[in-house]
UniProtKB/TrEMBL annotation, chains A, B:
One of its GO terms (biological process) is amino acid biosynthetic process. It is found in: Cytoplasm. Pathway: Metabolic intermediate biosynthesis; chorismate biosynthesis; chorismate from D-erythrose 4-phosphate and phosphoenolpyruvate: step 2/7. This is 3-dehydroquinate synthase. PANTHER family: 3-DEHYDROQUINATE SYNTHASE, 3-DEHYDROQUINATE SYNTHASE, CHLOROPLASTIC. Its EC number is 4.2.3.4. The gene is aroB. Residues 182-324 form the 3-dehydroquinate synthase C-terminal domain. The keyword Oxidoreductase does not apply. NAD(+) binds at residues 73-78, 107-111, 131-132, 143, 152, 170-173. It comes from Peribacillus loiseleuriae. Zn(2+) binds at E185, H248, H265.
Amino acid sequence: MESIDIKTPSKEYPVFLGQHVIEQLPLFLEKNYSDITKLLIISDEKVASIHLHKVKELAAKSGKQVLEYIVPEGEHAKTFDVFYQCQSFALANGLNRKSMILALGGGAVGDVAGFVAATFMRGIPFIQLPTTLLAHDSAVGGKVAINHPEGKNMIGAFYQPEAVFYELSFLHTLPIKELRSGFAEVIKHALIQDPEFYKWLLTEIQDLAAITDEQYLYMIKRGIAIKASIVKEDEKENGVRAYLNFGHTLGHAVEGLMGYGNFTHGEAVLIGCVYALKLSQYKGLSFDLVEFMEWVQSLGYSTNIPKQLDHTSLIQKMKKDKKTISDTITFVLLNEVGFPELAEINDEIILKQLEEIF
Amino acid sequence: MESIDIKTPSKEYPVFLGQHVIEQLPLFLEKNYSDITKLLIISDEKVASIHLHKVKELAAKSGKQVLEYIVPEGEHAKTFDVFYQCQSFALANGLNRKSMILALGGGAVGDVAGFVAATFMRGIPFIQLPTTLLAHDSAVGGKVAINHPEGKNMIGAFYQPEAVFYELSFLHTLPIKELRSGFAEVIKHALIQDPEFYKWLLTEIQDLAAITDEQYLYMIKRGIAIKASIVKEDEKENGVRAYLNFGHTLGHAVEGLMGYGNFTHGEAVLIGCVYALKLSQYKGLSFDLVEFMEWVQSLGYSTNIPKQLDHTSLIQKMKKDKKTISDTITFVLLNEVGFPELAEINDEIILKQLEEIF
């Protein structure tokens, strides 16, 4: 079992990673949270049907009362209504400040469950039990949120979990589309901080359906370490944390305009990465974009913006992003692989490059 | 102009207190928040009709764009719907992380506006501009929240403002009922921490309609200092901050069962103080309760639980309080004036004392 310590200015907590780490949950709870009396597992319909039974059994072993609340799948979990329903359920079932939330699922479940934990009675503890590859990104760093029709993750908080139990065997049940979504964030982490890791990915990962446990362990460990090093420096996104947004400026716009849940986060981010790499080349990056495109296409990614989206709408959407602080859109670009920087790019160049590449 | 520094583990900020402090707002913004481009004033209907014009004018002097959003009065501002509407307004008007919220009003406005600030794009800065005496309590300490039908302040956060501008002249426009509500928290602060201050209040304040500016200045300064000393030690209510809850266990239950907005917070808290003092006497406090009752009655407080509330419902309601962590209700009692302690009291005694006193 690997254990990675995440240090942020507001909190320090462990990420347990490996096969069977979930078995350690009861002892961890008993040992560190003797004052907690109730556990509320928040999960989604699909994940619950596969993993809830086991997790409930393990949670109950801690001797605490275990409750469950099931939310819709994917981004449909991240609405104001679902947020309110979770709060109502918690209140109706007598949760209080001696209760804890367990977020069992992918990024969306972690986001809404974490935001419920952050705000229920002004904050109760929560633990992330990620079930997707994407969660190597979302479960670490304390970003929790729900969506507003005007934009993704618009209402939320920075609220760190008590711990993350990353059970690798859960990944075996993931549909390939979900794997592909999560792997895009792995690629992103490599691009912004670790040329070696990027080379390793390019060489080692040729088929997403054939990733070995050893490869998973390595890539998740590297991904989390990269994210942790950035979050440690900048928990609340005032500085370097913005680099994690590589590929997300255009990615979020694509995802949003397609309608949340209709296009996976990672697949949209991958298109955003392609675009950010192209912009970076325009600014002087020396990078083999052709090799990159061939590789990601061979992994099943689309590298094109969906046809129904026009470039002007994309620009408008990007201007509404919460990292956008002026009328000019800010992108994360690369000087070299591993060396990101923020750059404000004017609309004309954005449009020209959009037309050139897509 | 008085300036009191509030120090919490997460933040340090000033409370400016006195006549004309509000005039200092533009310079303060210009000097300390040059990167902020938009200000959103959140206020309620009544306060806006009296003070919005002036505050808007002052805010605009900072050179930033000024927007306003008006919420309903009192606890009606603290609903999920209003919270959502504020967020929607902010998004529709292009607020972003370079925007700031100004909460102009009493405790309710501060609570909802603060919670909007705490969660909009995961947190933007806000400034409290309190207009009530009650706000000497609510505007300091970073508790922000909205209500749930199941209980007051159930959904919220600990989120500190950038500053508090406490304009004393705003108090001149306060209805006596509102003054009475706020003065109850002044009494509470004296009782839990400062016997001298309690004596001063008992001697000096005989008519709420005739409080002088000098008296206001003194009592608010003392009240804030007491609250600040507690919040400094315990920002997130894990320990001594619970003492601030003196009078609130029964008070919140009375307020809740009467329907939020139908009975002022402070008037309910005062009844809770009477009851907590009685329980404290039962536990050994030597205190002239008769003198206290006469004094507060002469100030216009009711010291009786409203007739329509039965004692069993009150006990049930108290058990749902978010500070209640077991089946036994926890009260803040006094050993002496100035020396509070937490005590779990069983239902039988609670009921017996309720019947004896009311």
